[in-house]
Amino acid sequence: MTVIENPLAKPGSEPQSEGTIHITLKVWRQGSGRDAGRIETIDAPDIATDMSFLEMLDVVNERLIKTGGDPIAFDHDCREGICGSCGMMINGRAHGPEQATTTCQLHMRHFKDGETVFVEPWRAEPFPVIRDLIVDRSAFDKIIQAGGYITAPTGTAPEANNLPVPKPDADQAFEAANCIGCGACVAACPNASAMLFTSAKITHLGSLPQGQAERDARVMSMVAKQDELGFGTCTNIGECSASCPKEIPMESIARMNRDLLRATRRRRRRPGQ
Amino acid sequence: MTTTMTARPSLYTTTIGRKVLMAGSGAFILLWVTAHMLGNLKVWLNRPEFDSYAHFLRRMLSPPFPNTWVLWIIRILLIAAFAVHVYFAITLGLRSRAARVSRYEYTDHVQADPAALTMRWGGLTLAAFIIFHLMMFTWGWIHPGYSFDKADPYHNVVGAFGEWWMVVIYAVALFALAMHVYHGFWSVFQTLGLNNRRWDRVIRVWATGASVFIFLGFISIPIGVAAGAIS
Ligand code: HEM
Ligand code: SF4
Ligand code: FES
User: Fold this and answer.
1) Taking the model in full, what pTM does it have?
2) A99 vs B110: CA distance, rounded Å
3) CA spacing 20 to 30 A to A188: which of A28, A48, B109, B155?
4) Cβ–Cβ contact A166 with B under 8 A
């Protein structure tokens, strides 16, 4: 374990400035997917509590760069909780200690002065580490490609009110469509299962009239794909939903199970479909 | 219009289909366990009642079926259910383990209850206990401080719990069973797609009721014997 000294530290323990905390990071460092990787201890004083977690990492990285160190690689894009790229495990919790919050929306005021904070990448074999905290989530894209869409002719956008959607169905579809594909569900699941993610897509498209034609084929294809990619098997623990920044409910998984059972029954009755 | 959603897995090649098999076999075993518990409670009535229950098991649906036929059919179904349940518990468990080869340095949980997290080790504890239990009451290989009499189950029950540590073993095993049933009962509904946010809490309450009922029903017997109420 390498300890990187705080480059800004002056001799003697000076008091923290107002509204800041001094934390110790234990960060996973891994040069590339092939390297073994290890936890590195990084001292991080003077962290303003109104920074987001990613801003804190930015500050730490700037300090590292100034002292010739190697900045911590992490993924991010929108920084407003909608793109799903900033996932990381913070003290053993996906996206950190707050419920319904992505890492980019997590603020440092939720950490105590003097706290040691473990930061690790998502861990699941289908999500290989690219570098430090960045993992390759393209396994999710493959699940989407297997059926997370409706087959429709493209062209000009159709008239929005041509196809009426009952309000409860629309609400359910919207709730499921909140999934941002961040992967926290897989990361938090003790089985590294992708059931919550896949079921969010099944619920989203299966609640809408446009999704009905391919409803059976979709669930069979997407479930087969998530299995093939090597995700683990659900044992109904519920850590996924509790860790989901978009609060996708466990009922989505029950719904996907129901859809799969129904698709199988219908195929038996109408083989060849 | 054609679709590219071509995969048509047969249900039981998918992990969900295999869990459906676990749910079905688990529910069958649970029904049997409940019947077994209710039957055992007859030991509280008196010796003839308990013996007539043992007799009834042998003569179920006879006629038309010859004696012990139905008992054997149930036994075979039960063995098959255990085989399916344990086979998929192990293979699906290994699959999940392979999905997380590199582990977290720091682990924490948001809500996971101990019952859900101990399904595998708790289940294996139950498997060990079931074998031990058969060695006591079915095969009569273990009989500390009393003589086993195949024809007199009442005598065997009273003899078995003369030793306090036997009561402890049963209490621990029944606690493991109660934990397994608590999560398993709810899981059956979730796995079979019979759960939603409105029913969720109701099913949790049923699951609690079922596990407490099974625990208290079974444990009353060793305690009753140890306390001298059954003799
Ligand atoms: C003999 C050894 C046993 C082992 C190794 C075992 C293991 C397991 C495992 C790993 C699960 C999956 C956890 C989940 O998906 O929720 C499970 C579920 C379950 N078990 Fe067992 N178990 C055993 C015995 C029993 C017994 C004695 C009962 C009945 C009282 C039982 C009833 C259930 C039920 C109802 C489920 C839920 C199935 C589901 O929907 O997934 N099991 N078991
Ligand atoms: S279900 Fe929730 S945790 Fe899983 S990928 Fe979607 S938003 Fe992230
Ligand atoms: S950076 Fe987009 S969700 Fe956090």
Assistant:
1) 0.91
2) 9
3) A48
4) no
